[in-house]
Amino acid sequence: MLQGSCLCGSVRYEVQGEIGPSVHCHCVQCRKASGASVTTNASVAASDFRFVEGEADVGEFESSPGNIRCFCTKCGSPLIKRTADPSKLRLRLGTLDSDPKTEPAAHIFLRSKAPWTVITDDLPQHD
Ligand SMILES: [Zn+2]
Ligand SMILES: [Zn+2]
What we know:
Layout: E1 2-5, E2 12-15, E3 22-25, H1 28-34, E4 39-45, E5 49-53, E6 58-64, E7 67-72, E8 78-82, E9 88-92, E10 106-108
Parallel strand pairs: 3-10
Antiparallel strand pairs: 1-2, 2-5, 3-4, 4-9, 6-7, 7-8, 8-9
Bound molecules: zinc ion (2 copies).
One zinc ion binds next to helix 1.
């Protein structure tokens, strides 16, 4: 069981079971949503994820058709993204309080990488 929370602690969640492979996403939407050069995300089964506290404080923003970014409305932490596939969620690993015991497998959306981001690891890079 993994646990996570937003910056202010109003929203807490749990993930049962395994999380999917994680990636560093450089897409412009993740950059804008997080304010960081990269966001580290992994897929989780929607049935494995639940908010345990503060679900009423979770806001939603549809950043592109079918992609709904869920965040804490008090502190702004990005938490999950819902996609057109209701069986899966994208989890923002930066909000985990537990160690998922997996390491990112790749960089993705390099075509929208911030020009000032320097990648210093040897992970595979995908446009
Ligand atoms: Zn918060
Ligand atoms: Zn992204």
